[in-house]
Amino acid sequence: MSKDALPGLTLCNNAMLRRAARKLGQFYDDVQAPSGLKATQQGLLYQIHIGGEPAMGAIAAALVMDLSALGHTLKPLIRDGYVETFADPDDRRIKRVRLTPRGLVKLDEAMKLWQVAQQRFEDVIGKDKAARLRAALDEIAALDFDLPPAS
Amino acid sequence: MSKDALPGLTLCNNAMLRRAARKLGQFYDDVQAPSGLKATQQGLLYQIHIGGEPAMGAIAAALVMDLSALGHTLKPLIRDGYVETFADPDDRRIKRVRLTPRGLVKLDEAMKLWQVAQQRFEDVIGKDKAARLRAALDEIAALDFDLPPAS
DNA sequence: CACCAATAGTGGTATATGCCACTAAATGAA
DNA sequence: TTCATTTAGTGGCATATACCACTATTGGTG
């Protein structure tokens, strides 16, 4: 069997997803670079902002992200003074997160650039297609792969 | 706790893409774990396999990945003896990559698990929808965001 | 030939993410 | 109340990825 006959990685849903994520991530990062925030950081700040002093676990769940990964990602943002954490008074296991005033300003700044990137992407790909894509991606993020055997 | 009233990050194409990539990546990784390879590594081995001793730059281009990122990602695979590199005799700047016999065996093993993950995902999401999704993702990976140079 | 610009990779540094082992705090019995 | 269990985070380690500065080659030019 010749290698040339083998199907490319175009068939792998996961590989395609990652590849597109790299491409789009580079684009959004590029546009948002002047703010000093990566697109991921801007998204995280936004999530915290609209979350109402969310618990770390809540953020991680919303972003379908490992809790420890969230903790690591948060560190540069805390170091730079954009977010701060505090223990929930009713349950000291819970650590809540909020933006600092400085973080709020920075988020504002980054959001303006985000709009530019978002707009340009949708101009290029088409608004409808983008909406359909997001719907599909949302569905994937919500999937449950668990096999339904004994329980 | 439904904060779905606010314009969540569901609107950001990039955030949605990353989130779905995390989710799907975790699933594929999980299924492929018994092989000892991450899904990304399996994809990379596969790309090398079908590439015919590709140059590093060619791999990076195919995967829409930074060249230096590829170099770093390759290191564990070289360390574990799955791939090896050699200089192109006609152009010593170029470094070509190939699978070792051991790498080929490992790829075979991982591909069997990949099929399981791939199959299960498509069972859950629907084969048509998966195909359409891959097409959209392929399109994104091929986009050119450069502003028209107004020449 | 001598030089300079373009090309291909390397290494360092930083963020993004995941898993695992471990700690602390709350919970649910016994 | 006491103790096992569950829940929420932390820290360490490893891979994934990007950008930048730097090196080694190759090619084109005067």
Can you walk me through this structure?
- The structure is a homodimer of 151-residue chains.
- Chain A has helices at 13-32, 39-51, 56-62, 67-79, 101-125, 127-141, and strands at 83-88, 91-99.
- Chain A is mostly helical.
- Chain A has a single domain (30-136), classed as Winged helix-like DNA-binding domain superfamily/Winged helix DNA-binding domain (Arc Repressor Mutant, subunit A, Orthogonal Bundle).
- Chain A has a two-stranded antiparallel ribbon.
- In chain A, strand 1 and strand 2 (91-99) form a beta hairpin.
- In chain A, helix 1 packs across helix 5 (101-125).
- Chain A starts with 12 loop residues before the first helix and ends in a 10-residue tail after the last helix.
- Chain A binds a DNA duplex (30 and 30 nucleotides) through helix 1, helix 4 and strand 2.
